[in-house]
Amino acid sequence: MQQLIHRIWYHNHWAKWLFLPLSGLFGVVSMLRRLMFSLGIQHATTLPVPVIVVGNITAGGSGKTPTVIYLIELLRQQGYTPGVISRGYGVEIQGCIAVNVGAKAIDVGDEPAMIVARTQVPMVVGAKRVDAANMLLANNDVDVIISDDGLQHYALARDIEIALVDGERRYGNQCLIPAGPLREGLWRLKSVDFIINNGGPAQQNEVLMSLTPGPLVQVSQSDSEPLPIAQDVVAMAAIGNPQRFFNTLTQLGYNLANTVEFTDHQAFSATELHRLSGEHPLVMTEKDAVKCRDFAESHWWYLPVNAKLTPEFDHALLSQLQQVAQTKKGLSHGI
User: Fold this and answer.
1) What gap in Å lies between CA 16 and CA 22, rounded to an integer?
2) 257: annotated binding-site residue?
3) What EC identifiers does the entry list (predicted)?
4) What are the pLDDT digits (tens) for 103-156?
5) Does residue 40 have a known ligand-binding role?
């Protein structure tokens, strides 16, 4: 099914015409939602600290999680104490949950588990991001909130919007869901503060981001020796663009004996992955690895990647953030 959707969205498959009426309905519902907020029928909640939303206008992955991790590290270097909120896709969450180090992906979602494992940042997941943000502020001394996804979650007022785009696939056939990958029309990009292009080539109004891979890490032992290059491996991925991951492994010098694509956020079983790997080393993404820590075998590995952005982006973001922080600090003191 995922391969069929990929052909419809990104290779102009004729089946898109069957879904266009539903896309029209999706567009109407989306427009009415936005209209409710613009007319004041529904009100967005403004928080006392700056809010940075990292999202996209397409369904599927485009590099949001590496970008969030990059922002956490950048803000810490500048003296900020960031916290993160997320929906926790792929799991059913009642209310809000604090994501602690070692949290299981089955409880909080794979991306939140990965973000906290990598950064130990204060983080809360919940279906309603306003509630998650309030819980984060109530229990942690944070001075800026990063929302992992949520560009279309208008109930939460935001101060800076960052939209990610996959540099290879871009916006596909430019149709709304389900005929295409768009959550909102391309017009939405005119109102965001930054458009980050993951992988390039970047257009004039886009900031180029590259993902730099590190050495493979054993899933069951983070301080293991890296897996040697130039051997046969089985590669698997449950992310938005698995082919990018497979291409990276090939570029690093690994021979892919088999590649397997899973649905984004899919849960795994020990039996399923044992059968898949066989005698070959099994290589997966870092996001998938957090779902396998409890039953990982010694020949399972993951590939960590780090986002790299431009100094110009860092300067522009920090300058805008400083202005927002000063304004909100002034308002909190009654100025």
Assistant:
1) 10
2) no
3) 2.7.1.130
4) 888 899 989 999 999 999 999 999 899 999 999 999 999 999 999 998 999 999
5) no
Q: What is the pTM of this model?
A: 0.92
Identify whether 201 is preceded by a cis peptide bond (ω within 30 of 0). Answer: yes
235 is an annotated ligand-binding site residue: no
Q: Are residues 67 and 24 in the same domain?
A: yes
Whether 16 and 147 share a structural domain: yes
Give residue-wise pLDDT tens across range 15-71.
889 999 999 999 999 999 999 988 888 899 999 999 999 999 998 778 999 999 999
Q: Are residues 299 and 316 in the same domain?
A: no
Tell me: is residue 65 an annotated ligand-binding position. Answer: yes
Could you list the residue range(s) of the whole structural domain that residue 267 is in? Answer: 215-303
Separation of alpha carbons 179 and 23, rounded Å: 6
Contact, 156 vs 62, CB < 8 A? no
**Residue tagged 């082919």 (tokens):** 243
Statement to judge: residues 14 and 155 lie in one domain:
yes
Nearest in space to 71 (alpha carbons), one of 309, 333, 320: 309
Within 13 Å and on the Cβ side, how many CA atoms surround 118?
23
Q: Determine if residue 263 is labeled as part of a ligand binding site.
A: no
C-beta of residue 217 within 8 angstroms of C-beta of residue 114: no
* The three-state (H, E, C) secondary structure of 71-97, written as one string: HHHHHHHCCCCEEEEECCCCCCCCCEE
Query: Was 240 annotated as part of a binding site?
Result: no
187, part of any domain: yes
Task: Give the count of domains, the chain.
Answer: 2
